[in-house]
Specification:
This protein is mostly helical and about 150 residues long. The chain has 2 domains: about 10-75; about 90-145, no CATH class. The chain is built from 6 helices and no strands. It has helices spanning about 30-35, 40-50, 55-60, 65-90, 95-105, 125-145. Helix 1 (about 30-35) packs across helix 2 (about 40-50), helix 4 (about 65-90) packs across helix 5 and helix 5 (about 95-105) packs across helix 6. It is elongated. The protein starts with about 25 loop residues before the first helix and ends with a helix.
């Protein structure tokens, strides 16, 4: 009895050869097109191309242009999130105000931290003080006409 030939699973969902088989199935242009509007989510991109995430990752790892395209796509999502957050702050969304304060205004004392700091001059603000300060910020934004 002769040994069975080794079976390899194709990397692409359609059964065609993977990039490791020597033939490139997807062009850089096609992958860039799939990246556009994907939010940088690899599962979405792979689905658009008809391949696995592993195959997509291999292409990205091998091509600096695709690494840059992924970075740019994720930056666009970040910009959208920030603009929606600022919009929510302007609309008076207290949760958004508190979130922004805690993440972007640490230099002003808006932190949520249970760690004890040796040598700290002032204690960390309480939730009540953060809420009060957030309402003050909201009031100032409203007075200035920003919202």
């Amino acid at each position: 009895m002769s040994p069975k030939p080794k079976r390899t699973r194709p990397a692409c969902a359609d059964g065609k050869r993977s990039p490791n088989d020597g033939a490139k199935k997807y062009s850089i242009k096609a992958i860039r097109k799939a990246i556009d509007g994907s939010g940088g989510l690899k599962s979405n991109i792979a689905r658009r191309l008809g391949c696995s995430r592993t195959t997509l990752q291999r292409y990205i790892d091998e091509n600096p242009e695709l690494i840059q395209a992924m970075s740019e796509e994720k930056d666009q999502v970040g910009d959208l999130c920030e603009s929606k957050l600022i919009q929510a702050i302007k609309e008076g969304n207290l949760t958004a105000i508190i979130f922004y304060s805690k993440t972007q205004m640490k230099d002003r004392g808006y932190i949520e931290d249970s760690n004890v700091r040796i040598g700290a001059i002032e204690p960390a603000p309480t939730a009540a003080s953060v809420r009060k300060a957030s309402l003050e910020i909201f009031g100032k934004l409203k007075e200035s006409g920003a919202i």
